[in-house]
Amino acid sequence: MVNTGDTLTTVLEKCGSPSDIREFSLPATYLNSDGDRVIDPSQLPTEYQEWTYDFGPTRLMRRLYATDNKVTKIESLGYGH
User: Fold this and answer.
1) CA 52, 13, 55, 3 torsion: positive or negative?
2) What is the pLDDT of residues 35-50, one digit of tens each?
3) In sequence order, what DSSP letters do the residues of 17-68 get, joined into one string?
4) Facing residues of 60 across strands?
């Protein structure tokens, strides 16, 4: 079983390779004095990933969301293919 807070290495050890991996990068931002969202060039972007596991037509698929290589959210999807 995988839980939020687990590392992606732990997920790989317990579940194997996912069916799909999507990687995203969001720039670090802040609100300036005018209330505008501004990119902060002094901060590294936030890296996050979505891993999808398709366990076949008799089991629900799972999608894991991870930031900085730690699981932040797990959701159940429909039955697999």
Assistant:
1) negative
2) 999 999 888 888 899 9
3) S-SEEEEEEE--EEE-TTS-EEE-TTSPPEEEEEEEE---TTSEEEEEEEET
4) 79
pLDDT at residue 81, as a whole number = 87
Residue 8 backbone phi and psi in degrees, to 5: -65, -25
Q: Is the pLDDT of residue 33 over 90?
A: yes
Identity of the residue numbered 22: R
Distance CA 52, CA 67 (A): 15
Tell me the Cα Rg of the chain: 16
Q: What one-letter code names the amino acid at 74? A: I
Strand partners, 37: 31
* pLDDT value of residue 16: 94
| The model's pTM | 0.77
